[in-house]
Amino acid sequence: MNSKIKLNDVFIFLLVIFSLRFFDATIAQTGILKNITYAFILLSIIISLPYFFRESGGFILPVQLIAFSISISIFFAQYTWGQSLKYSPTIIPFLIWFVFFYLLNSGTTIKAIENIVLFYGIIYIILFLFQFTHNNVVYFGFYKEFKVDRGIIRINFPGGGVFFLSCFIAVNKATNGGSKYRYLWLLYALLGIVIVVLQSTRQAISVMLLLYLIHFLRTVKAVYKIATIVLFVVAGYAFLNSNTELSKGLANQQKEDASAGKDYIRIRAAEYYLTQFTPNTASRIFGNGFANDTSIYGKVMLSLEDDYGYYLSDVGLVEVYVFFGLFAILGYVMIFIKSFFIPLPMNYYYLKYYLWMIMLTCFTSDSLINDGFLITTVLVLYCYQRLKDNQTILNRVFQKSIDVGYINNS
Fold first, then answer.
1. Residue 294: how many other CB atoms lie within 10 Å
2. What is the DSSP letter of 290?
3. Model pTM?
4. Chain centroid to CA 92
5. Interatomic CA distance for residues 121 and 163, integer angstroms
6. Facing residues of 147 across strands?
7. CA separation for the pair 365, 319 (Å, rounded)
């Protein structure tokens, strides 16, 4: 049993880095390493399929809906846009949802998941700082993600899922009374804020600060609640008035977006994709399927991006609907609702924070289906489901003991 669990841990450890495509390293974008990556992900999906049909409860039905929607989208890309099935391997990274069901049968511990995420979170920070300080050459990601913007060389570094989750784990452990290294965890959590600021993404900065604030206000005494609020307000004010290129760039971009109103490019893109893009009723329900860049369908998408600035990745939830349809949207909505109502022990609240982060950013980012986030989302839902199932078993045992005691007393 122990050897099986350790083998599962190694498998998940490798699956994460393959799913992240080595943080989109340029050396892994073509050739044999790309082929190995796709082969490993496909293998993980195949061994997960036997566990797909199981009793519903918790997050099982939402994940089934999403996995099913992505699977059939292959055929709708052909039906609606004539995209040949030879392009179907493009969809493989998105089918990582099936691994959720393998994990439920694997017995992998939550502690093992935490360690794997923290390891890759540290790797993410190291690689980002390396790329940030060597921005004249693209080592990770794509050239279009490197640009001078908002007063800084803005790098949209790939693989953000493990980074954000590792930060939420750290902030959770920093306030856990049983943690021996609480100040190191706090330092890691603060470093996470610095990394997000350096990436100059307003939404990510706001959401991360909000979730940190919620956490600290929930876990500390009244006097510390006041101190926390004051600290956040003062730090925010000091940054916005620091007169640095970064702070001025963020402020100017905010003013531009606010003044655009209905002409804001994201609003125009969302309106177009929702009302004009999909050509038939079936695809309005089941989605258009994912586009391969080299197919005619993919070239249509690239043309909309290049000619009009209509990037699906900038309109999040609309992207899910356009590619995978209403049932995928329903799956995500169910996940977000359940994240509020399914209880968790306090030392696992980082699972909620991660789900709330992708929920709060889902309208203006592609975090819902970006392959830099998908594997992390699957791991989070597995841990959440396992905790829920364990609590259900405990409740049944407790209720049975009460019933037996009642009968004996009678």
1. 12
2. P
3. 0.89
4. 17
5. 4
6. 154
7. 9
Rounded distance between C-alpha atoms, residue 358 and residue 365, angstroms: 9
Give the residue among 317, 302, 309, 310 at the shortest CA–CA distance from 364. Answer: 317
The two tokens of residue 383 are 């841990």
> Of 148, 143, 173, nearest to 158 (Cα)?
143
Vertex 110, ends 193 and 340: CA angle to 5°?
65
Which structure tokens are listed for 53?
């049909």
* Contact present, 41 and 91 (Cβ < 8 Å): no
The radius of gyration of the chain from alpha carbons, rounded to an integer in Å, stands at 22
List pLDDT tens digits, range 313-368. 899 899 999 999 999 999 999 999 999 999 999 999 999 999 999 999 998 889 99
Residue-wise pLDDT for 155-173, tens only, equals 888 999 999 999 999 999 9
Q: Cα–Cα distance between 24 and 58 in angstroms, integer? A: 32
Q: Where are the domains of the chain?
A: 7-219+264-408
Cα–Cα distance for residue pair 217/233, rounded to 1 Å: 14
Q: From CA 11, how far away is CA 116, in angstroms rounded?
A: 11
User: How far out from the chain centre does Cα 175 lie?
Assistant: 24
Give 374's contacts (C-beta < 8 A, 6+ positions apart).
19, 93, 94, 96, 97, 161
